[in-house]
Amino acid sequence: MASEELAQKLQRRLQLEESGAAAEGEAEAVRDPAAAEEVEERSCLTASAGAELSAKLCRRQDINEGAAQPRRAAVFNPYTEFKEFSRRQIKDMERMFRLYDSGRDGYIDLMELKLMMEKLGAPQTHLGLKNMIKEVDEDFDGKLSFRE
Fold first, then answer.
1. What fold characterizes domain 78-145?
2. What does pTM read for this prediction?
3. Which residues form a coiled coil (predicted)?
4. What are the CB-based long-range contacts (under 8 Å, 24+) for 135-140?
5. Pair 38, 44: CB distance under 8 Å
6. CB of 112 within 8 A of CB of 101?
7. DSSP letters along the chain, please?
8. Per-residue pLDDT of the chain (148 residues; tens, 9 = 90+)
């Protein structure tokens, strides 16, 4: 879906919500059934949410559908983000991450994860490794960063 088209649909939806004109929405649904289905699907997801939460849910749905890219955190500080771990534990985890990051690119990819699991004495199947990555991969790049 083009970004202009998405922006127009969002503007139309905001106008409908502000005016509270349900009759306009029904008339528009009769003219364009595909748009009505999409608006109905989104409205059921965000029916009881506030405006801010609604916007976040719509963005998350767009990311899941591939229409938008996830935002990356500008600065990552593991000591403030993971308060449940001590500084020593975080340093140990970072050292282990660097040890298994053989490409030195800041990510552990599928082959590096395979080697890591073999060295730890728990070899996995190819599908098992992919599922492990999929469980924690927040930015959907198929690799694991230290933050993930």
1. Recoverin; domain 1 (1.10.238)
2. 0.47
3. none
4. 138/70, 139/70, 139/72, 140/70
5. no
6. yes
7. --HHHHHHHHHHHHHHHHHT-HHHHHHHHHH-HHHHHHHHHHHHHSTTS-HHHHHHHHHHHHHHHTSSPPPPPS---HHHH-TTS-HHHHHHHHHHHHHH-TT-SSEE-HHHHHHHHHHTT----HHHHHHHHHHH-SS-SSSEES--
8. 467 776 777 787 777 777 764 444 444 444 555 555 555 555 545 455 578 888 888 888 888 888 877 776 567 788 888 889 999 999 999 999 999 888 888 899 999 999 988 998 988 899 999 998 888 888 888 888 888 8
What type of residue sits at position 72? R
DSSP assignment of 28-51: HHHH-HHHHHHHHHHHHHSTTS-H
Q: Token pair of 19, please? A: 């005016």
Partners of 145 in the beta sheet? 107
